[in-house]
Predict the 3D structure of the following.
Amino acid sequence: MPRGKRKTADEGGRHGKKYKSGSHSGYSDRASSSATDNGSTEEKPKEERMKIKLEGSKTKGEVLFCGGTNWDLIGRASLPKTAAGAGGVKKPQGGRNLWGPHRLASLSGVQVRTVVSGPAACHSVLITTEGRVMSWGRNDREQLGHGDAVRRDNPTVIEALEQHNIVAAACGRNHTLVLTEYGTAYSFGDNRYGQLGLGHQSQSVGNPVKVSFKGQPIVKVACGADFSMILDCKGSLHSFGHPEYSQLGHNNDGQYFVTSTKHSFDCQLIPRKITMFVEKTREGHIVPVHNVLLTDVACGNNHTIALDIRKRVFTWGFGGYGRLGHAEPKDEKVPRNLKTFDMPGRGVSHIYAGSSFSMAVSEQGQLFFWGQTKTTGEATMYPKPVQDLTGWKVRSVACSNHSIVIAADESVISWGPAPTYGELGYGDHAQKSSTQPKEVKPLEGVYVHSVSCGYGHTLMVVRSDTEDDKEKIKKLPELEVKT
């Protein structure tokens, strides 16, 4: 359990929430594109399209990694027959679990501002301070954006996006979305359920393609396991992909019968605006909520959580294990207001989603949890404060399949049930799991700006501004993968 901290207010702020027009300090104006443009002709919508220039994270530092590196096996019972290494040559699927934080030899000297993965993802994306995007990990659905299905064991530049300044990204189970500084989204990877938003279905798309969206500039992208969300600068949310648990928010699960005994799903192939938001009164009546302007969105495997300008939280999709927070396990077909936070002084500043759980940081800095991180035991059916983190100033939260990693004050804190792959970062000779929040001792003295989790791994951007910072980082072991 982490030591006690004095109670302080959260400073607020959120990546991707704010944006500015005009020049983007430190970055060149790279408007041309080498990525595929999906062949559609741009048409001016009825509403005048705004011109914006997004800012990515303003932090910078080196990348640390812990967790599983056997990309072809993580989360699977057996290895696929088609797994291959660089050059298309099948090679040992190896990849050991790194139980403590490691430096990546292939990123020596590379300054990074953002690291991205997802609770269902066995691949990762990082964005350098120059806006270049790199990816590595599992690639059997071409989710790395390199135009092939070859696994990458080291971060590799996505060449098709070299002419863009990338500011944000999101990773699903087998697909990826990236966002440019001008509010345009590109997608690649698995498209069997239309989760790339291209207007058609296909096994996979290996090269980045512009999402088929002609609305206002996009300011946020998010990925569930097999679906996607884009948030535009006007506060409207648009969804596409697999609708099985109503996680798209369109008041249906897309299910239809092919025959009397066989059913299928009508997937959403292009971004569709979510138009209905509701709340449940004390008397049990469902009433609409009007004029909702969203500022953030996060996706679990099969559920979605969104935050609006009034600091209210809406959740929808799969309701199992209490991940929606409404004190009942039923699915929600449209965004429903989470009443826990809809009261004076209880608004939310940040939201997060794991595979089967959700988290939020209140305006006062208190961390809340609801859902379930393990497959057995009692679920938390509505938001409850994480008492062990009371008084800590939380600045970054990452959710894996079952584990949670948090950067707060001068420490990194993590917890999660067994089995784990090393994503908790406790070290080779320490415990491998923890049901209670526990400080990551190998990172003592290392300041972590931000964290992100995949299915069974954790990525961190750590401060390397001073010689003292660099010396502390150098004391950590280094992972060198030869390809």
About this structure: Confidence is low (pLDDT under 50) at residues 3-34, 36-42.
